[in-house]
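Note to self: the last two entries modelled the partners one at a time, which told us nothing about the interface. This time every component goes in together.
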Amino acid sequence: MSAFDHDHHDDDPRLSRRKVLECMTWAGTGVLWTISGGVPRSLGLVGSAQAAEPAGLTFLQISDSHVGFDKPANPNALGTLEEAIGRIKAIPVKPSFMIHTGDISHLSKASEFDDADRIISQARLDVHYVPGEHDMIDEEVKLYRERYGRGSKGAGWYSFDASGVHFIGLVNVVDLKAGGLGNLGAEQLAWLEDDLRGRSKSMPIVVFAHIPLWSVYPTWGWGTEDGARALDMMKGFGSVTVLNGHIHQVMQKVEGNVTFHTARSTAFPQPAPGTAPSPGPMKVADDKLRTLLGTASIVFKPGTESLAIIDTPLQG
Amino acid sequence: MMLNSLRTIGVRLAMAAVMASQITAARCEDVTVTIDNFTFSPAELKVKVGTTVTWKNQDDIPHTVVSAGKFKSKALDTDDSFAFTFTAAGDYKYFCSLHPHMTGMIKVE
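The predicted structure of the combined assembly is written out below.
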C-alpha cells in the first residue's frame, strides 16, 4: 500500500525533520498538509478527525480528477471525485484552501470543467489550480486559461502568500519537446527567479506543478526537463516542499531542504514505475479501486512530533 | 466464338491486371500506425511519396501526433484516428505533444 520512495541518508543531519517526513501519511482522496514551524507535514484525510488542532496553516491537495474519464480503470471518475470532496467536507477543522495539481478534466471539454467545478466547489474552499496536460487539449487551448488562469502569468503560473508561507504554482505541461519530459521554459524560469528575489530565506516555500519536478521515471516521461533549474533557485531556502500529481500514486523523496511528494489521483491508479508495459490507467478489481485512490489512513498522535501511519483501507 | 472468348479472356486478364495494380496502390497508400501502451507501432516506417498514413490511438489515454511544422493532430481519444498524406520525400520525425517521450519516424522516399 505504501508506495513511498524514501531516500535514506544516515548522514542526514536533519534527523528530527526527516523523522517527521518519514511519518507523513496520505489519504489518496486528498492530502491534508499543515505547516507549523516552517515544516510541512501531511496529516491525511482520514486521520484528521483525530488530529490535534494544527497550529498555523492547513491546506489540502487534490489531483488528477480526470473528469470525463470513463474507461475500465474507473468508469465513473466524477463519482470518485465526489466521494473525495465528500470526505473533504467532513473534515472537522476547515482547511484554509485547496490546491489542485492538474488534470482536472480528461479531454479539456467545457462540460468536463463544468462538472469538475460543480463538484469541487461543494468543498467551499478556495482552490488554487495548475494545469495538467489533459487540461490544455481543447482545439484553441483556451478553456483552462479562461476558467482558472485569472491573474496568472504566461501559460498559467503564479505565486501567493498565505500565513507566512510562499506558494508557487508552476506550469510544466506546455510546449513539450520531442523526446523530452515536462517543461517549464525560459520565460517561466526567469519569472521564478524574479519571484524569489529578495525573499527571506527563512520563509517556507511550497511549489506545486502537475508533472513531478524531480526525475521519478524518465522512461515514462515522469520528470521535468528543466526542473533542476527551478530547484537550484530555491537552494538557499530553509524549507522547500514540492507537490506534484500526474503519476497517480504516492511518491516521496527528501533531499536536503527539499521534500518532494506526489499525490494520488481521485480517478484511477497508475502502475509503479517499470511494473507495466506503459504508464496507462491501471485496471484493478472493483473492490480494490478505492484502496488505491485513497485508503492509506493516518492517525495523528497528539502531543508527539510524529504521525503514525496505519494502513486502514477505506474499503475492504 | 473463338474470337469472342479470346476477347473475354483478354478483358478478364486486363481487369485482373488493373485490380492487382489497384491492390498494390491501396497497400501503398493505406498504412496504419497504431498507438498502444504509449508507443507508436511501428516506430519507424518507410513509405512512398503519396502515401497516406493513419494513426490510430488504442490507449485509454489521449495522445497527439505532431511533426514540427509538418502536421499536428488534435488530441486523439481512444479509437480516434488521424491521417496525413505525405506528398514530399524526407524524414518526418514526430512525437506525442502530451507524452513527448513517445516518438516515431516516417521516412518518405
